[in-house]
């Protein structure tokens, strides 16, 4: 006989609160406020929730249930937020993939993530997506997002009836591919609770409220933009979407929508300054003058925001972004968020003395739920009960944390993280290559450029341009080597391992990400 539900059972259900519950409450408490602007599309909170309900029913009818996966292959679009919220209602996992990747890279993501539904875009990225579908071995339902007879028709016939599934906050919701330290990227699974917790921190540090207007001008496959999108959503602000970076269109939107927050990388800022030198666009909601003199980082926010007063930070995708922040106090990158604990550990799991360099290790609500389908890697990262970040740091005399640099070599080009192992694996596919080492060299605009040092097999020949083109076909364009240099040999240690420090010294490597 089934036992009657106890009061404690009732309270356990009542206390459940996830990302979709925020949307449900916005529908009730902000019925006349705008949630989304994307081209001609303008949605209030009730209108957004109605579309999310219809999408959730469509996904459910396609077999998307708790733990199932949905993949987005397209540029920035308000439907990215819709898909994430529909997944939240179902307890499913949503992944916005990097649309700048090659067809081969996209095919890897499809086969690795194994989504039940793929939502894709034809405009601009369609050729690579279609080729990736042909290369992929995984069967899924494909729905075209930028076709009225696709996505819109698919959800139109579904009911605006909330799917009242109660979802635990520890349920993974967002998958972000990152950390290609072994040659292929891994999908970090971020939970509903972690996203909400981080939203609270970001709203305070970035001065986000229901009056905020965020211009989604950075890529939504990066937390650099997406975290601000979600914090704006969480606090009832307005999200304005643009498919990709376009300086003039961004200026139009800043003026029209009175944008208060945005993601603007330095090269785009220079374009904005050039276009708006005569002040033809009103940017006073974001900057004090057309030349944007307050700009200090891609995260643009009101000048009085705590993060602007102390912009030093440490974080990573696996921690839902920033975890150590100088606006919380301290020197270096600052002090840890109240949502985590941080220790600096040696390889045996013991604390290193203050001031010594060790691995930054984290516990708490911001830590991911693991990489999708990477049991061995997950075991290694958590073996001693702390999440090993593979980043090096040290504890300063005031107790704050200094980020020293990645334990696994990483190149930083603009806002993109590039892992040498991924490019080296691509170049080793060429039969002419005997050995290769990829390094980062200083770049005045992008921080670093990719340089490949290549040892050819005896009697073999290949042009540098051909090697660059080989990478361009198989990897995202920003990952391809800008420079290929042929060398007779590469320095290795007594254990046979590549001596990357020696390679950097011999061949001009430098500019790797680090904080004092």
Can you describe this structure in just a few lines?
With 516 residues, the protein is an alpha/beta fold. The chain is built from 16 helices and 24 strands. Helix 10 (247-257) packs across helix 11.
Observed structural traits:
Luciferase, domain 3; 516 residues; single chain; 6-stranded mixed beta sheet; alpha/beta; 24 strands; Rossmann fold
Number of strands: 24
Mean of all residue-level pLDDT scores? 94
Look at the structure and name the CATH superfamily of the largest domain: ANL, N-terminal domain
Strand order of the largest sheet: 2-1-10-9-11-12
Explained architecture:
The chain is of the alpha/beta class and 516 residues long. The protein has four domains: 7-240, Rossmann fold (3-Layer(aba) Sandwich); 247-308, no CATH class; 310-405, Luciferase, Domain 3 (Luciferase, domain 3, Roll); 416-507, GMP Synthetase, Chain A, domain 3, CATH 3.30.300. Helix content is 32%, strand content 24%. The protein has helices spanning 7-14, 19-29, 45-61, 78-90, 103-113, 126-135, 148-156, 192-205, 223-234, 247-257, 266-275, 306-309, 375-382, 420-427, 464-474, 500-507; strands at 34-38, 41-44, 69-73, 93-96, 117-120, 141-144, 172-178, 186-191, 213-216, 238-241, 261-263, 299-300, 313-316, 321-325, 335-336, 340-345, 358-364, 387-395, 401-406, 411-413, 416-418, 433-443, 447-456, 483-486. The strands form seven sheets. It has a six-stranded mixed beta sheet with strand order 2-1-10-9-11-12, with helices on both faces. A four-stranded parallel beta sheet has the order 4-3-5-6, sandwiched between helices. A hairpin with a 2-residue loop joins strand 20 (411-413) and strand 21 (416-418). Helix 2 (19-29) runs antiparallel to helix 3 and helix 3 crosses helix 4 (78-90). The protein is globular. The mean pLDDT is 94.
């Amino acid at each position: 006989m089934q036992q009657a539900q106890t009061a404690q059972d009732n309270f356990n259900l009542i206390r459940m609160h996830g990302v979709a519950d925020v949307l449900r409450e916005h529908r009730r408490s902000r019925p006349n406020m705008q949630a989304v602007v994307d081209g001609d599309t303008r949605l209030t909170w009730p209108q957004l929730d109605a579309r999310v309900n219809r999408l959730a029913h469509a996904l459910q009818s396609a077999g998307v249930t708790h733990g199932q996966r949905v993949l987005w292959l397209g540029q920035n679009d308000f439907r990215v937020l819709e898909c994430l919220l529909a997944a939240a209602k179902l307890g499913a996992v949503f992944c916005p993939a990097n649309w700048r990747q090659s067809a081969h890279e996209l095919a890897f993501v499809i086969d690795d993530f194994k989504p039940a539904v793929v939502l894709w875009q034809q405009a601009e990225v369609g050729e690579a997506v279609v080729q990736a579908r042909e290369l992929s071995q995984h069967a899924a339902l494909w729905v075209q997002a930028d076709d009225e007879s696709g996505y819109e028709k698919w959800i139109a016939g579904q009911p605006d009836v909330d799917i009242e599934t109660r979802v635990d906050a520890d349920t993974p919701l967002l998958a972000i591919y990152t950390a290609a330290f072994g040659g292929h990227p891994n999908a970090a699974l971020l939970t509903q609770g972690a996203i909400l917790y981080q939203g609270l921190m970001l709203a305070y540090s970035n001065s986000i409220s229901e009056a905020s207007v965020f211009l989604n001008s950075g890529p939504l496959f990066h937390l650099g933009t997406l975290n601000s999108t979600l914090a704006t959503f969480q606090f009832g602000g307005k999200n304005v979407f643009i498919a990709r970076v376009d300086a003039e269109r961004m200026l139009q939107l800043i003026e029209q929508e009175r944008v208060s927050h945005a993601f603007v990388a330095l090269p785009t800022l220079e374009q904005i300054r050039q276009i708006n030198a005569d002040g033809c666009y009103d940017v006073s909601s974001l900057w004090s003058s057309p030349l944007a003199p307050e700009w200090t980082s891609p995260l643009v926010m009101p000048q009085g925001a705590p993060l602007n007063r102390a912009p030093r930070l440490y974080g990573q995708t696996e921690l839902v972004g920033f975890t150590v922040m100088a606006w919380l106090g301290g020197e270096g990158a600052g002090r840890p968020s109240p949502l985590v604990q941080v220790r600096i550990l040696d390889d045996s799991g013991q604390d290193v003395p203050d001031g010594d360099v060790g691995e930054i290790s984290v516990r708490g609500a911001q830590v991911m739920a693991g990489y999708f389908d990477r049991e061995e890697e997950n075991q290694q990262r958590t073996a001693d009960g702390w999440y090993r970040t593979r980043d090096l740091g040290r504890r300063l005399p005031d107790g704050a944390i200094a980020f020293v640099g990645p334990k696994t070599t990483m190149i930083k080009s603009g806002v993109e993280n590039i892992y040498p192992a991924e490019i080296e694996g691509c170049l080793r596919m060429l039969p002419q290559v005997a050995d290769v080492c990829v390094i980062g060299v200083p770049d005045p605009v992008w921080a670093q450029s990719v340089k490949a040092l290549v040892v050819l097999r005896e009697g073999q020949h290949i042009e540098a341009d051909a090697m660059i083109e080989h990478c361009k076909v198989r990897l995202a364009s920003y990952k391809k080597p800008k420079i290929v240099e042929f060398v007779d040999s590469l320095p290795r240690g007594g254990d046979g391992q590549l001596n990357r420090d020696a390679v950097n010294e011999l061949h001009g490597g430098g500019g790797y990400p680090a904080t004092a």
